[in-house]
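User: Hey, quick favor. My workstation is busy. Could you predict this chain's structure for me?
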Amino acid sequence: MLEVSFDDLEPSDDHSILEYKGAPFTGLAVENGEAGRRIAETPYVDGQRCGTAREWSATGRLLSEQSFLLNSLHGQARTWFEDGKSKSDATYELGICVVKREWDVEGALTSDYCLTESDPQFKTLRRLRELYGRARS
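Assistant: No problem, here it is.
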């Protein structure tokens, strides 16, 4: 898989995708910090985020991991505090948050969300499912 620096990617004229050398980028965009340690990586397909993006702290600890499809959050999205404790854990479908839990630094649950049919976003999700199908992952 082609790996390039985020700095080498440019938005398309309409800002809808990222390009590398004038063409929609397919590969892994990376950012390295001090001493060359990787601090971020995001996979792209045809200029759109697609796959699992990750970010690490300067010490190398994983801080976030998010799944994308069609340039939108789709699947698991998790974050951690520097000490490795869970900060948030969410599930997205075609950019809509369907479940999300958040914790404070002591590990106490501070937020527990679940999309319901009465939520305005549910109607949007239903329409997106019709347009793009549920099988995409």
